[in-house]
Amino acid sequence: MRFSSFLNHATNRLWAGVVFALITVLSLALLSACADGGDVEVSADDASWTLESSPPTAATAESEAETEATTPNESSEEEDMSEETEQGRAGGSTPGTALAMLDELAVKGRAPKTGYDADLFSWRSDADHNGCDTRNDVLRRDLRGITLKAGSKGCVVIAGDLSDQYKGETYAFDRSPNNIDIDHIVARSNAWQTGAATFDEDTLKDLGNDPLNLLAVSSSLNRQKGDGDAATWLPPAKSYRCEYVSRQIAIKHKYDLWVVKAEKTAMKRVLGACNDQPAFTKNVAWPDPGEGDNVTTAKEQPSSKKKTNSGSGPKSSESGTGSSGSVFYKNCTAARDAGAAPVRRGDPGYASHLDRDGDGVGCE
């Protein structure tokens, strides 16, 4: 009985321990499950992060690829447009160059020629009051090996050699056929149509006799040029074109004249081959009377041509031929109207009142 009671008591204790162990294991398992459940539950922010960091779908990858391919091109186009705008803006060119000065000129259409008269520019007058007319000032400056006419107060050039910038050749000045003209680099009518029509009398005179705007050149080329701008005429000597255009720009800049679109395009094309052609700043002032290159003085030889005037004297008419065959022009306007200007010593119609500077050529 005692043994049986002991056995029952032991059995009960064993089952109690087993039950306790089972309860303990189940409790631990339940606690572990609750802990795992807490890790699986995520917040909205965590869910958003999880979606963004998840592997992209094929459509998403393709969209991103297109974005990456497009963005650099758009950026490049914006940079190119920025560069193009900067280059086209005034000041985009190298400072101190003719191109930079050109950028400062206004671009407008050509104004009408209404009211234009070359005489308004008072060309050949003694604008600088040095005692010599402008034509002879130019000749004394631009010719070499000069001979001045005795008794002309050091003004009138009767011989010399010209290194013709337009032709790229050197030749002797011959007064008889008048093979040298004085070119207005910015032609007077061109100036008139690009702003000079509003100038007062003094400013027109300054422009017409400005050393910057005048150059001794071949008569034939000067007449070929006419009133052309850089878009319609350039010197045949290509080596001088950069300086020629640079000088035109300097003149227009000095007098606040504008350029037309085609003219500016032509100027930029010429300057594009000049490696930053500097703005024209050379000293182009007139020499004083009696000065020049290797100056000598001599009496002018009389013309070999025989005068054709005969009879009792010239007829007092604007222009025309008298019964004796003589021709008389009251003034240069009459000579030009008759198509006879310039009138040279020995030619029909030549007279001293047409030749103000006594150089043998009237109504130049």
From TrEMBL:
InterPro entries: Excalibur_Ca-bd_domain, GmrSD_C. Signal peptide: none annotated. Transmembrane segments: none annotated. Residues 328-364 form the Excalibur calcium-binding domain. Residues 353-364 have a biased composition (Basic and acidic residues). SMART domains: Excalibur. Residues 75-85 have a biased composition (Acidic residues). Residues 49-96, 280-325, 339-364 are annotated as: Disordered. This is DUF1524 domain-containing protein. It comes from Brevibacterium koreense.
